[in-house]
Fold:
Amino acid sequence: MPLTGQSIIAGVAHPGTGGSFTAVDPRTGGPLGPEISCLAPDEVHLATRAAAEAFPAYRATSPSDRADFLEAIAEEIEALGDELLERAHAESALPLARLQGERGRTCGQLRMFAGVVRQGDHLGVRIDPALPERAPLPRPDLRVRHLPLGPVAVFGASNFPLAFSTAGGDTASALAAGCPVVVKAHNAHPGTGELVGQAIARAAERSGMPAGVFSLVFGLGTEVGAALVTDPHIQAVGFTGSRAGGLALVAAAAGRPQPIPVYAEMSSTNPVIVLEGALAGDPEPLAAGYVASLTLGSGQFCTNPGLLFLPEGPAGDAFLAAVEQAAASATGQTMLTPQIRAAFGTGTARLGAHPSVQTIAQGLAGGDDNAPAPVVFTTRLAALADDHGLTEEIFGAAGLVVRFGDVARLADHLAGLEGQLTATIHATEADHAEAAALLPVLETRAGRILFNGWPTGVEVTHAMVHGGPFPATSDSRTTSVGSLAIERFQRPVCYQDVPAGLLPAPVRDDNPWGLRRRIDGELEPRP
Amino acid sequence: MPLTGQSIIAGVAHPGTGGSFTAVDPRTGGPLGPEISCLAPDEVHLATRAAAEAFPAYRATSPSDRADFLEAIAEEIEALGDELLERAHAESALPLARLQGERGRTCGQLRMFAGVVRQGDHLGVRIDPALPERAPLPRPDLRVRHLPLGPVAVFGASNFPLAFSTAGGDTASALAAGCPVVVKAHNAHPGTGELVGQAIARAAERSGMPAGVFSLVFGLGTEVGAALVTDPHIQAVGFTGSRAGGLALVAAAAGRPQPIPVYAEMSSTNPVIVLEGALAGDPEPLAAGYVASLTLGSGQFCTNPGLLFLPEGPAGDAFLAAVEQAAASATGQTMLTPQIRAAFGTGTARLGAHPSVQTIAQGLAGGDDNAPAPVVFTTRLAALADDHGLTEEIFGAAGLVVRFGDVARLADHLAGLEGQLTATIHATEADHAEAAALLPVLETRAGRILFNGWPTGVEVTHAMVHGGPFPATSDSRTTSVGSLAIERFQRPVCYQDVPAGLLPAPVRDDNPWGLRRRIDGELEPRP
Structure:
């Protein structure tokens, strides 16, 4: 099916009256057709109404039908073949090999959620049987299951045009929970968005799902997104992007007559702490690992190690020298958009000109205007206390190495850091006493704690947390990656003395879905 | 220990500079000493700082030590003996027998949470073991556990001076999760609050808990509460009370530099739907049940059945006649405060004067100025569509019976109702087709659905949901009653490749706490 440049409303291409734009090849600045026809803010309700109409039927689907749908989406995305990868490559400048891996991750997480839906533990079924003989009053029969919240608005990320965009983690987990989804297409990769949107629409049709279970809307500026978040049919929001963008959606959602949850994954500098023992050997592998993580994907990861804390002294100096050497041969890759590249330029110029900051390593610029050289700066811990702006995220391959003298003082500093997605310690056994003292501090500041690794690379699995205290996310109680994410889009409902014939399947005595249930507070074995 | 009328900051009585007030006996309007010394808003930080200082040690307590502490609180409350009941009776006018039951519930829920803490399922441990041989990249070792959010501010309810106040459900679940608690004492029962606060402080001391794990602060007006919610140490808020009060706290929390979750349980009219079959027999038991639930505790329950939908026609008329008779002999009990009684008067006067509303039943006033007569109004479904104000909650023993002709039209109306704590259907088997059609509508509108019972009376157990869509609560994803409430005060943290010797106990391979863990997505049997 060719690209139409139109929104997809409940399976049907839909032109809008909200203006138009054309995608841009970030390597050349040249246009990538077709022209994209945008909805006006007052046309968004077409998608949300379709989602609301689809909700009763979609939430009532059996685990097996819903799981089949998720798997059908994965199949339809794979069936797009090279066309999808080539379009995503043209729109994002991300290497084809990376996009191939990202497609695998996208389809893998859809299939993981299919498995979660079939297994059913997320329904959190609890049964407290009636106690008719209890004195002074009998206890009624009580049964809990979780229900989906309702239609969800999803705002994808520029840096994951597949795995965190149209059919990305938020869409997969919301659909798995039983929520229809309306995606606001990312304007940095509209063609990729439409191709994936068409794949989801095809999957919905062949799986017999109500068409309104999925829509994709194009819009200019921020008004269409605001219209989506304030639409009364929308019951939750998933967002991955900038802090300003996320906070605007949080404020819009809080200002509704009926406030709704917003899961915004916003910004993080992902502190890495190198302890003395980790510097005892050859500094080169550690430095190479750091530079590789820092420059991966042009540094355009929310888990990019933007801050590295390094001991003062000769071992730290040797590590820095090795970083300088490794960074010198690192070549900039084309960034996702000219705007992101411009912000990188502003951020690195600000740091480079800061009186307390030295530029210690510089790589090579890439082959076009949007491929700036990776850069590493250094400063001292005391300077951070004087200027909190030093630790602001610079999206891209820019690192700040902070030298510290004393681990206790470092711990004090870390305790005051903003919330983070990740925190990493490099340590050997000789450092364990110091690491043990840092751990409780990092637990309060980050959603994931790593040892002797690098934060880029987020496993899509059951024990992943991609989240963290504000402002890393707007809601630290959840994750946006991994199977636990399904719980974000649910609420519990209790059934008291509901007649057996009227009970919904998950809480029926005959347990037709084969769920593991909590009876009087204790989990049953799986039937 | 005698009442001091002072705040309890980390175990120590603390006078304030924020003015003073004296408790009032709602039956007489007379004062109940001692004078209560209030903190000024800028003194609240004494309590929150103590809570923040206690947090690292308190959250590190073992399940057994923390459970012992919760049980010690129950014991210390019981050790207060009749003094507590008499003070609560004097301050609230609630009957002694009711307060005795409420004390049992209060201590029962503390002990239930002790059991939850010992069992440990709330920690949600997940382990995805490393896959060093996986291609193209090895999988790291990933482990998740849940951590407490941090210090919690609790605002208790006037209508449950024990079970939903100082040591009530929010305090018990937050302490169980590992969060220190700062309670803003309710000014309708300050002496009761201080007695219970002293009991908690004694329990903390004898259990070896850090003193800052609990504080109780007195304050005038709304400024002290606002100071608490906007204090940077506070990481979550529990509230039970009016919609205006809850929404003010939600707004204050959202306006913080770091927004925090607010769990506000606010208002609900708890619709009861009577279907034809339920009217087929003798109407008297049903009418008696309704009037008993409506007038229980002077109607001062968040689950009071304020709205009852009744079929038009002779069977409904007969039910109404039976209601009139049952209500005629119902005597008003003293309400909690003169303010609540005044609001009841305003609300019932407004309904009584409404051109579409008839007063159909009136009980007897009680023996003092604060004990108004229960009252039942009636109107037609069409009138509700014209004036949404008709369905506003009137806190107290006032019911509105809404006559409907057609269940399909009723379903449309219910779909547009505000979020509710409960929804109830009275039906016999002959009504099941109609009930089945109503159920999905009610599921989207309420947190608990009952059949052939009355919503007052909330079991404190594992399968209870006392929550619901906005504005019943500010966060439909949780419950404020029952063991599931512990999850409100937690966030997940992931440990990636953390050395065995540094892992926290819940995620260690040797599983020292005997937890049930989810390995690669599947729950293990309990060890």
The longest helix of chain A spans residues 96-119. The CA atoms of residues 63 and 117 of chain A lie 6 Å apart. The first strand of chain A starts at residue 7 and ends at 9. Residues 272-451 of chain A form a domain with the Aldehyde Dehydrogenase; Chain A, domain 2 fold (CATH 3.40.309.10).
